[in-house]
Design brief:
Nuclear Transport Factor 2, Chain: A, Glucose Permease (Domain IIA), 3 domains, ten-stranded antiparallel beta sheet, five-stranded antiparallel beta sheet
Length: 476
């Protein structure tokens, strides 16, 4: 056997091997210059994950939860990203990174402001206090005719402003009294005016008083308002002369209507019943409205409290000179009959007509100065002298009602100080008005007597009970 026969022949020619090596080199170079799309996706995904570590943590948690649900082991978030670049991009879009807190605008809330009207304040100054321009004042005043009521300010009045987040006026409100308030509300067309009136509850109230000094002071101390005190004097003014008859120890009881809103007394109505004890004599009065709707006061047994004349034409005045046929005149300095009664009171005090009548004179008359003379039927005449002036509507030839104000205390004519000179004539003869017996008015009609007693008797009984309870509590 020879050596040459033991060698295997070559599988490929040498030229083929060189060609294959060259092709392999070219392919390797192409792969280095142009990487596959799969490799590019992997690079892109890896770059996103490195820039958002918060998303890596979120995806890691999501992968763990998904593995627990499918009983499969959780994989690395990097491996998951390498498997799919599109899944990673969707996750990043679903959970955006929150914007910085400084980039969020905070919305300003609406505000409520209150101002109290002080001396010298105007609507413009009040608007300025809450930061509103003067143009806002003109805008609301021009929005509605009734809006001008906001410019009628009173000292101590409170104005409430509601302002939008932008500082614009949306509502203006003010309380005029315990029963009434007004407001302006912003709308598309401007402002709408609204008036709110509360409807009070009406109940009855009782007061008892003893006169220690003056009637007005004792009544105020007992809790009776000034207006109700005047009403009480008017009710009993036909029988009691409040200028000279009042004595220490006199007593009064009054039941009256009281208006209440939310448990607070906000006003008074008329006197329902009253009792006045003067010098040991007691007078009673009950308010009664007949079937025709006319109200008047009567005694507890139905006689009218209203006589043809009231005793005193000036409330709570002081008698400075009485009726006398031999008085020395303070100015003329000689004996001259004083055919009337002088009531001293402050200048401007109202003077009332003693009864219904026709005005014979409302003008100047010698030493009487400004004078009113009234004719009451065919029998009686009254004169009122030294007036400061006449009440509106009182003219010669006109008519007046009993209790109507006809003028005011003054010093015109022969007068040394402000007072009323009052004369009373019967059939043309001067008489003393303090001693004149006054004619009575009609009592309760027989057809309404039973209805009247059904109202008066419970009121009288209540006064007795209230007084007894009050006195018993004061002794404890």
């Amino acid at each position: 056997m020879t050596t040459e026969s033991s060698k295997a022949p070559p599988l490929y020619p040498k030229t083929h091997l060189l060609a294959a090596s060259g092709i392999a080199a070219l392919l390797s170079l192409a792969l280095l210059v142009f990487p596959s799309s799969d490799v590019e996706a992997k690079k892109t995904t890896l770059s996103l994950e490195l820039e958002s570590p918060a998303e890596q943590l979120t995806q890691d948690q999501d992968a763990a939860e998904a593995a627990q649900a499918t009983n499969e082991p959780a994989t690395s978030p990097f491996a998951q990203i390498d498997n799919s670049a599109e899944d990673t991009q969707e996750t990043a879009q679903a959970e955006p990174v929150p914007a910085p807190v400084s980039a969020v605008e905070e919305k300003k809330p609406a505000s409520h402001r209150e101002v109290i009207v002080a001396k010298g304040d105007t609507l413009s100054t009040l608007f300025g206090k809450v930061g509103l321009p003067a143009t806002a004042v003109h805008e609301i005043l021009a929005s509605d005719k009734q809006a001008k009521q906001f410019s009628q300010l009173k000292h101590g009045q409170k104005l409430e402003f509601e302002l939008s987040p932008e500082g614009q006026l949306t509502n203006l409100h003010s309380k005029l009294s315990d029963l009434e308030s007004i407001s302006l509300t912003k709308n598309d067309k401007g402002y709408t005016f609204n008036r709110i009136t509360a409807k009070p509850t009406v109940r009855s109230a009782y007061v008892h008083g003893v006169i220690n000094s003056s009637l007005s002071q004792s009544a105020a101390r007992a809790g009776l308002s000034h207006s109700l005190t005047m009403d009480m004097a008017s009710v009993f003014g036909y029988d009691v002369d409040f200028a000279q008859d009042i004595r220490q120890g006199d007593e009064f009881d009054v039941i009256y209507e009281q208006k209440v809103v939310n448990g607070k007394a906000v006003g008074n109505g008329p006197i329902l019943s009253a009792r006045f004890t003067n010098r040991g004599k007691t007078y009673t009065a009950v308010r009664y409205t007949n079937k025709q709707g006319n109200s008047s006061y009567y005694t507890a047994d139905g006689n009218s409290m209203r006589k043809a004349f009231i005793r005193t034409p000036v409330d709570f005045a002081r008698i400075s000179s009485k009726f006398s046929m031999g008085r020395k005149h303070p100015i003329l300095n000689k004996i001259r009959a004083h055919k009337g009664v002088d009531y001293a009171a402050p200048r401007g005090t109202p003077i009332k007509a003693a009864g219904d009548g026709k005005v014979l004179l409302a003008g100047r008359r010698g030493g009487y100065g400004n004078t009113v003379i009234l004719q009451h039927g065919n029998t009686y005449t009254t004169l009122y002298g030294h007036m400061q002036g006449f009440a509106k509507g009182v003219k010669t030839g006109g008519t007046v009602k009993q209790g109507q104000v006809i003028g005011y205390i003054g010093t015109t004519g022969l007068s040394t100080g402000p007072h009323l000179h009052y004369e009373f004539q019967v059939n043309g003869v001067h008489v003393d008005p303090l001693g004149q017996k006054l004619p009575m008015a009609d009592p309760i009609a027989k057809a309404e007597r039973a209805r009247f007693l059904a109202q008066s008797q419970p009121l009288m009984a209540r006064m007795e009970q209230e007084k007894a309870t009050l006195l018993a509590s004061s002794k404890r």
